[in-house]
Structures are given as C-alpha cells and as structure tokens.
C-alpha cells in the first residue's frame, strides 16, 4: 500500500519532467521535439489521474503536484514555443530595439494558464467537466501549430507576428472563459453519453492522417466547437 500510493505522483512527476524537456527544446528552436515531449506530458497527465482512481490513491499532495506539473508542461512549455516563434519572426521587423521585446508577448500563455489552473482548483463546478479550455488542450494546440508553421515564418514576418499575438490572446482568454467543455474521461465504453468523445476521437484520427501534426490543432478547434454545440444542446 505504501508503494501504491506513490504511483500516481510518480507519473505526475514524469509529466513535469517531460514539460521541462519540452521547454528546453522549444528555447533551442527544436519545435518537433517540444511537440513530442508535450504530447508525452499529456499522456502522463492522463495516466496519473487514471492511476489515482484505479488504485484509490488520492491525496492533497497529488492534487497540488498535478497543478504545478500542468503549469510547467502545459503553461510554460507552449509559452516558450510561441516565444521562440515570435523571436524568430520579429528580427526582421522594422522596429529596431523594440523587436527584442515582441517575443515577451508569448508570456500571456503561461500567465493565463496559471489563472486557469488556480480557477480550476477552487471551482466546484468542474468535477466532471470543464469550464473554459483545459490547459493540456491549449498546450497541444500551440505545440502543433508552432511546429507546423515553421515553413511560413519568413513569408511575411509582420503578418505572422500579428496573427500569432492575436491568436495567443484569444486562446488564452478561452482558458478562463465560462464556456462549458466536456471531459474526455469516460465511465463506460457505451455510445450513449460518449457521442461527442467518439466523434472527436474519430475526427482526430482523420485529421492527423490528412494533415500530420497540424491535425492535432484541428482536433482542439473541433473540441471547442463541439463543446459549444453541446452547450446549446
């Protein structure tokens, strides 16, 4: 029993470690590796909760550790992806020394991720579903977008920076929005009650097959749309 209770926290630490590696990869401009390590972190993040439920090994420490891990893996790491992208594109802009500060706009991502995680910890409405975009989904969106747009960074640096900054602010606001979003956790494999989850999984497979890693971003956008549709229904 003493060993079993540490298994979920160990998995959470592996997620945290993956997020640290992803951050380093992003700062070195290796966005493919950053994406892969964020995906690995997301897998560990899913497994730690599953392990806690399976082993009945819940603990206050585990809850706090999970949030701290998420802040690094799904807040700081995607922020560093966008930081590198803006730094790469802003060097060609005609703003002189101001170009140096443009990449700092990427810090809106870890800032709002922290707000989202703090809100989640005290919001009793989010026990079975989410209010606002979950940070793992947000991180996967930016990691996959970051890697996929590498070939077009220098096609039009000004437009690239503008679109990236605006999109970063919009998606960051989604983190703390009041939009209900369904959880991917399932209690049974039955179709009834899991319709949106199965639709999302099927579309994710199709998107990735068609568009590669960019399909991950498409899946996250579909997740947002389905959640809004579910709210209306």
UniProtKB/TrEMBL annotation:
<dbReference type="InterPro" id="IPR048254">
    <property type="entry name" value="CDP_ALCOHOL_P_TRANSF_CS"/>
</dbReference>
<feature type="transmembrane region" description="Helical">
    <location>
        <begin position="159"/>
        <end position="177"/>
    </location>
</feature>
<dbReference type="GO" id="GO:0008654">
    <property type="term" value="P:phospholipid biosynthetic process"/>
</dbReference>
<keyword id="KW-0812">Transmembrane</keyword>
<comment type="similarity">
    <text>Belongs to the CDP-alcohol phosphatidyltransferase class-I family.</text>
</comment>
<feature type="transmembrane region" description="Helical">
    <location>
        <begin position="101"/>
        <end position="118"/>
    </location>
</feature>
<feature type="transmembrane region" description="Helical">
    <location>
        <begin position="67"/>
        <end position="86"/>
    </location>
</feature>
<dbReference type="Pfam" id="PF01066">
    <property type="entry name" value="CDP-OH_P_transf"/>
</dbReference>
<dbReference type="GO" id="GO:0016780">
    <property type="term" value="F:phosphotransferase activity, for other substituted phosphate groups"/>
</dbReference>
<protein>
    <submittedName>
        <fullName>CDP-alcohol phosphatidyltransferase family protein</fullName>
    </submittedName>
</protein>
<feature type="transmembrane region" description="Helical">
    <location>
        <begin position="198"/>
        <end position="226"/>
    </location>
</feature>
<dbReference type="GO" id="GO:0016020">
    <property type="term" value="C:membrane"/>
</dbReference>
<dbReference type="InterPro" id="IPR000462">
    <property type="entry name" value="CDP-OH_P_trans"/>
</dbReference>
<keyword id="KW-0472">Membrane</keyword>
<keyword id="KW-0808">Transferase</keyword>
<keyword id="KW-1133">Transmembrane helix</keyword>
<dbReference type="InterPro" id="IPR043130">
    <property type="entry name" value="CDP-OH_PTrfase_TM_dom"/>
</dbReference>
<feature type="transmembrane region" description="Helical">
    <location>
        <begin position="130"/>
        <end position="153"/>
    </location>
</feature>
């Amino acid at each position: 029993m003493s060993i079993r209770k540490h298994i979920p926290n160990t998995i959470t630490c592996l997620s945290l470690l993956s997020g640290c590696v992803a951050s380093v990869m992003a700062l070195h401009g290796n966005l493919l590796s950053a994406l892969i390590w964020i995906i690995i972190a997301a897998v560990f993040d899913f497994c730690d909760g599953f392990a806690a439920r399976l082993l009945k090994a819940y603990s206050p420490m585990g809850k706090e550790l999970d949030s701290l891990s998420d802040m690094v893996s799904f807040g700081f790491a995607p922020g560093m992806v966008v930081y590198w992208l803006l730094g790469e594109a802003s060097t060609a802009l005609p703003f002189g020394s101001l170009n140096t500060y443009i990449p700092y706009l990427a810090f809106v991502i870890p800032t709002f991720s922290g707000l989202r995680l703090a809100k989640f910890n005290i919001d009793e409405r989010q026990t079975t579903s989410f209010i606002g975009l979950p940070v793992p989904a947000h991180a996967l969106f930016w990691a996959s977008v970051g890697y996929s747009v590498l070939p077009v960074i220098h096609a039009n640096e000004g437009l690239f920076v503008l679109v990236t900054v605006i999109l970063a602010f919009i998606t960051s606001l989604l983190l703390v929005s009041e939009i209900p979003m369904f959880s991917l956790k399932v209690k049974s494999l039955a179709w009834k009650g899991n319709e949106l989850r199965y639709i999302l999984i099927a579309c994710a497979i199709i998107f990735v097959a068609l568009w590669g890693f960019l399909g991950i971003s498409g899946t996250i956008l579909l997740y947002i749309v389905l959640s809004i549709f579910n709210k209306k229904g």
